[in-house]
Design brief:
Chorismate lyase; DNA-binding; about 250 residues; Arc Repressor Mutant, subunit A; 6-stranded antiparallel β-sheet; homodimer; two-stranded antiparallel sheet; alpha+beta
Chain lengths: ~250, ~250
Amino acid sequence: MAIAKSPALPSLATTKGGRGSLATQVRDQLRTRILTHEWNEGKKIPSEFDLAGQYQVSRVTIRTALKALEAQGLLDIRHGSGAYVANFGAAIRAGLQELRSITDTIREMGFEPGMTHRVVKRRGATADEALRLQIAEGEPVLYMERAILADDEVVAYSYDAVAIRDTPEKSIGEMGKGSVFGAFAKLGIFPVRALAEIHAISSMDIGWGKGRPKSGLYLLLKQLHFLRDGVPVMASDTYFVEGRFQFIIHRTL
Amino acid sequence: MAIAKSPALPSLATTKGGRGSLATQVRDQLRTRILTHEWNEGKKIPSEFDLAGQYQVSRVTIRTALKALEAQGLLDIRHGSGAYVANFGAAIRAGLQELRSITDTIREMGFEPGMTHRVVKRRGATADEALRLQIAEGEPVLYMERAILADDEVVAYSYDAVAIRDTPEKSIGEMGKGSVFGAFAKLGIFPVRALAEIHAISSMDIGWGKGRPKSGLYLLLKQLHFLRDGVPVMASDTYFVEGRFQFIIHRTL
DNA sequence: AGTCAATAGTTGTCCTACAACTTGATCGAA
DNA sequence: TTCGATCAAGTTGTAGGACAACTATTGACT
């Protein structure tokens, strides 16, 4: 039962000046250790006491991290026995219930993500956009039409509207290029949740270009992204080509 | 700052002999207090210290409960400030990321749930079912074909296969009648998670009866329900009629 | 072999104390 | 007044120690 700080573990506070609470940092590190299969699925991970020793934090902090991972479905904590790795690692990472960028998800699925922009412009909000973004009609939004690719094949067409509000002009340009969430992060804007509505759509009016599917069958993900305090920042309608993208949801109590 | 146990609160241990840990009981009670709008959306709830006094438990227990609710997206806890009610109560309850029976969801949406059984029989597992349920091909399963109604209108057709395993014969009959999960509960079987796959389907071969939609457009929810230890117990393919049932997902980090 | 009791290990809860952060009030200077 | 800094009170985050409740294994006994 020797307690020694494993030198292989990246230290906590020093990694990046501390981005979030201690428990959050520990949670993220344990998360990657689980997802990289450091412990086999179904296997017991070290006790809270041991982990506290490894990370040099209190048992409270470890417990908070473990509970969070249990809530995400990655762990199964049993009173008096221990914490066990659930056997759904990959599915959870790809699950819709986790808010992550489509690009990242595609990359983790082993494909090469890509994106082509058809429309990127600043214009007044439509009635529908104004309603969803809780702004006045006609107020400026950044409107985009993009095709999302995986290994050069179109997997989805996305129609997005970002509320401008106080966004400086120069930063708006960046969104039209790389990752939208990357641009958000630079501005200190962090959407922490999204409300998504799912529909089955059969239409020939969706999409463009030669990669456009003939079936016309799509899964529409109608999303609204929110900040911590509940302010909506982006409304996006993404049409996923049926069959080319796996939609998984991990449901828990 | 007077700490008095509110007499309106149901006591914890006495309610039902204690179904789960203290923190879980507190979580459930706080959850209903939130969903019944005891505190307005966006408003601050009492401090951990106050709640500990109300429920006569330690601050640790309250913290555990609050953290769980935060993970579910019902609360927003801010360091140094307090815990605030998120403005997504209804959406979260109806959200797919929460594992609840369709019947309950329909009822909470204000409709009268119903169900008609077309097929209820015990037969050997098909190759696909055997694979999903992790049993041998031909082993007995309870197979059902049901139509799910809301206010006497068909919202979905479901094709389900339940792994029999040690289930006593008489209990199998009950599943064919009322709620499947109700029958599970009586047997002490509690599915705690499900992995769902979503597809858009356009087909005229789905469904039956005169309520069958003409469009032939469905959202297929292909589910597999698991026990705590990862044993699959039920595989169900549910075809939701596009437009008649709102599919929402609450996505969080 | 089978049953039961003891035991060590693990998670759940409690207590106390303090650190870190947020918010509003207070006060002083421009 | 108006702005800004400072302060104080309130709240969440982390620490450490202690014990209760539960699990799984071992070992003794029948």
